[in-house]
Structures are given as C-alpha cells and as structure tokens.
Amino acid sequence: MKVRADILRTYQILHTWTGITTSLLLFIGFFAGALVMFAPEIDNWATSPEKSMPAIGDTQYDKLLPQILSKHPEAAQNITLHFDKSMSPVSWYEQGTGRGLGLEDVKWHGSLNSQGELITQLVPVNSLSTMLDMLHRTAGIIGEVDHTQAGVFVLGVAAFLYFLALVSGLVFLLPTLTKRFQALRRDGERKRLWLDGHNLLGVASLPFHIVIAVTVTVFAFHDVFYGGLSQLYGDKPLFPRSSPSKIERHITDLPKVSEIVAKVEAHAPGYTVSQIRFNNLDKPSASASVSVVNESQLMRGALNDFVFMNPYTFEISSSSAAHSEQTIWARIVSTFFGLHFGSYGGDVVRWVYFLMGMAGACLFYSGNILWLEKRRNSGTEQSRSYHIMGALTVGVSLGALIGIASVFAANKWLSLGAFNINYAYMLVYYTTFFLVMGCSFSLGPAKTAVYGLKCLSLLCLAVPLSSVIALIFPSIGLWSPANFGTLCVEIIALMFSMIFLGIARKTRVRVSKNEPGSIWYIPKQIPTDFGNQAKVQ
After folding, report:
1. What SS3 state is found at 112?
2. Is residue 88 classed exposed, middle or buried when 0-12, 13-18 and 19+ CB atoms within 10 A define those classes?
3. Which of 63, 157, 259, 346 qualifies as a FRET site for 219, CA 20 to 30 Å off?
C-alpha cells in the first residue's frame, strides 16, 4: 500500500510525541492492571489465614445471618454474605465503606463454629489489591480534583493520546506492514530489533489496546459526558429513580437467604450468586446488591454482574445480568465494561489479559527506548533532553516495578508489626519509587538498570522465600499459601525473579560493550599508579 511521504511524516510525528508523552504513565497502569486481574488471589495471599473465619455450608447462611443481626444490630446498615469458601462467610465494616482505597478500613468477620455457634473477630482490611488498582487507575499520582483522584483524569488524557498514537502508528506502518509484521531483524543496528519488537507487539494486540484506550477515556470523563447530556435533558433526571418506599422494615420479617438466592437465580438463569450485600435492613430504603457470576457472559463488574433488589419483596430495581428483558443499551454497557475488565471466559481470559497487560507495558517501554536510540548522537556528548528522558525511562519504569515488588516482599513481615499495614504499603512503594528515580538521575540509567534489575530479581525471590521460612520456622508468625490460587502468586513471583535476573545479565553485557554517549554506557574503571580508581572515557 502506497501512502504519500508527507502524510507518513505527519503520522510519524504524531505517533512519536503522543507515545513519548504518555508511555511511562501507561507503563505503570498496564503493569499494575495486569496484576489486578488476580486481585482476589492477591488479597487471600496477603492476609494471614488467622484473620479469616471458617467456611460454612450454603444452607447455614439462613442460621448465621439472624444471629449476627441479633447480636450486632449495627451490621444491618451494611453487611455482606460471601459464598466464596476462601473468604469469611459474613463481614461488615466497623470503619470505612469499602469504596476506593481506604487505608484505615476495619471489618468484622463472622462465621459458625462446629457447634453452630456464632464466632466473630474484628480485623483491619488488607488493601494490597486495592493499592494496585489505585496504581492501575492513577499511575500513582496523588491528589484529588472534585472528589476524584487527579491521576484518573491524567490517565484519561493519556489514554486519549494513546489512542491517537495507536491510529497514527498503524497508518505509518501500512506501507511495510505485510513485509515486516513478523520480522525481528537481529542484524545491523540494535535499534532495528527494538523497532521490530515494538511494531509486532503493537499490531498483534491492536484490538485490545483500542478497547483499553477508549474505555479508560470514558471511565475518566464519564461525569463530564453526563454533564454535557444534562444540557439536553434539563431538569429531567438522566437516570430516573423510583420513589422511595415509606414502608417500615423489621429485620424479623427478612426472608431466608436461600429464598433470596433462589429468586436471583430464577431472574438470571445460568448465573451463580457469589455474594449478597445488604444495606439499611431496618429502614424503608432497605436494599440488596447481589453479585452474580456467569463466565460465559460479558459481565459488567471486574468479577461479576449485579442484581439490585428489595430483600423483603424480591422486587428487582435494576440488573446488569443477561436476561430476556435486558435492553440493548444495557447489553452495550455490559460489553463496554466487560471488555475492559476481562470479566468473561473465566481463568483463561484472566491469564490472557494478564499477558496482554505485561505485553502492553513492554510496548510502552520499547517505544521510549526507540526514541532514545534514534536521537543518540554518534559522539559522547548528548542533549539535555536525551539524558532526562533516559533517566525518566529507567527511573519511572524500574521504580514502579521495584516499588511493587518491595510491597509484596515485605507484606508478610509487615504483618508481624502492630502498625497499619496499608500505610506501610504506601510508604514502602513511594519511598522505593522515588529512591530509584533519584538513582537514575544521579548514577545514570545504565548503573541504575543493572543494579536495579538485580535488586528487583531478589525482591521477587523474597516472596516465595518468605513462605519457605514460614514452613521451616512456624513460630515466627509468617504463613505459607493455603490454596492453589495463593500458591500461583508465589509461582509468578518466582518466574518474575528468573526473568528479571536474565534481563539484568543481558543489560550488564550490553553496557560492557556499548559505546560512549549511549544511556547504556558505563565507563570502565582501571587502577592508577596511586591505587585509586580512574574512569576511562
């Protein structure tokens, strides 16, 4: 396909500058987002088994819920039943709401012992997966704008520019797409391999990236979109609500849990109930938010669909689950959310999205490396912008990786202390991130990359090593994986350790052979006549 040279040049410039201005933010978002695909397993792994209650049979919820509401009437305001056997059967918030990253959230957990008696305990919420989700949505940018995290808006803008980079990059590649799509040229200049790998990752995963770019933009600015629609609707509510009920509710009239589950499953055939969240059970506004799962459907939530109903009358106010009366707009919205979250197809799709997220992070990193390689002068003197972008590329990407790995490596050891572990997570991540950033600017990208990758490999290795120590010395207070899901967290960490060690070795070889002027060049050291060290330029 032939495209005029001036058009190609325009699209190349657009692709370059939209990519270079967003790549580092998107690197963090994609890497953290890939990990969030396994949020339930991460939370189970990060929480000591002692802080969860024993599972019960499905029929026992009818007995458990009335006992809790009788002995803890405050739970009627917000109480959740969990049907996942890896979680406590019942929980409710003593402090916090569970919305967003609540560093000081505290929960009650409840269950029945072997004699059928109620047992409860108060446990601080471990927000490790929520912190990862915060990094995924904000790239770690702190602050709020109109009660919304500032980083959400920043990533929304980055996602829009990222969409432009995708389109412009595809147009720029069209003339040579069929010839070089699967080519990875190892001969000639090193930047050719980076270029071919970058193009291969981008084109092969183009539909996925378009979906993510569009959905992130909409998620970030949906309030702005609704505000624009309000100019058309005027005072008429965009989403009409039914008038609130004035009927007094008494907890003693609450139907059995098994009856509520049966009504929901009849409404959404093929779905199974994963949890029920009751609100205001002793008020006229009583409601139940039922999470339902059907892996063969595109689900609106990250893990499930939702059915909102009156727990006393079984009247369903709204539902995102696929059913015969669902409107075309509701299906479009569910598809929109489901494609972003990967909430369909079960574990197979979760692994695919995990790998696509990792590949996306590699795509953004390789784009920056290409920018640097193309602008490197042949001599030893490089421009100031070259040095700054080189330091930012290594500092931000490696800083985020080491920051996240540090949190995982420290998790079980931090749980031994009497402090708030969620504040410790934030302190560990941001301290490590900015430390690596400082090293990248002061020591240079090459040294930071070589030693940082080795450190990263050790931190990943520390994750399964902590479990080994827990098995050898059980009195310390650490714990080892209790199921296959939590074991997978440590297997992935071990794989990351080997991968980063291999990259560290290759980077070390590269810097030893590189020419002055490259960000990957480290001056060799030789002893002087006085026994000191001198740099050879």
Report:
1. strand
2. buried
3. 346
Q: State the Cα angle at 41 between 256 and 307, rounded to 5°.
A: 35
Q: Which amino acid is at 411?
A: N
Q: Residue 459: name the closest of 399, 523, 527, 531 by CA.
A: 399
Compute the distance between CA of residue 386 and CA of residue 193 in angstroms, rounded to an integer: 20
Do residues 373 and 507 both lie within one domain? Answer: yes
| 218 pLDDT above the threshold of 60 | yes
pLDDT at 526: 42
Q: Which two tokens stand for residue 471?
A: 């098995």
Q: Are residues 301 and 352 in the same domain?
A: no
Quick one: CA torsion of 7, 10, 14, 20, rounded to 10 degrees?
120
What tens digit of pLDDT does each residue of 230-288 get?
A: 566 556 655 556 666 678 888 889 999 999 999 999 999 999 999 999 999 999 889 99
Distance, CA of 318 to CA of 23 (rounded, Å): 39
Burial 266-298 (b: 16+ CB within 10 A, else e): ebbeebebbbbbbbebeeeebbbebbbbbbebb
Q: What token pair was written down for 107? A: 């929960």
- Answer whether residue 224 shows pLDDT above 80: no
pLDDT band at 455 (very low <50, low <70, confident <90, very high): very high
Segment 297-318 mean pLDDT: 91
User: Which of 55-69, 328-342, 507-521 is predicted most confidently?
Assistant: 55-69
Q: What residues have CB less than 8 Å from 352, skipping those under 6 apart?
A: 342, 345
Of 90, 125, 160, at which residue does a domain stop? Answer: 125
**Cα→Cα distances 157→151, 203, 286, 363, Å:** 10, 22, 39, 19
Q: What is the mean pLDDT of residues 406-411?
A: 96
Residue 404 lies in a domain: yes
Look at strands 272-279 and 78-82 and give their pairing.
Answer: antiparallel
Same domain as 279, residue 366? no
In this structure, the answer to whether residues 416 and 278 fall within a common structural domain is no
Q: What percent of the chain has pLDDT over 90?
A: 54
Residues 492 and 366 in one domain: yes
**Range of the structural domain that residue 63 is part of:** 48-125
Closest CA to 367 of 21, 6, 7: 21
Does residue 92 belong to any structural domain of this protein? yes
The answer to the question of residue 187 being in a domain is yes
Residue 291 pairs with which residues in a beta bridge? 275, 306
What is the Cα–Cα distance from 9 to 16, expressed in whole angstroms? 10
- 339-396 tens-digit pLDDT: 999 988 889 999 999 999 999 999 999 888 888 888 877 666 778 888 899 999 999 9
Picking from 308, 341, 374, the residue at the C-terminal end of a domain is: 341
Instruction: With respect to residue 137, please indicate whether it lies within any of the assigned structural domains.
Output: no
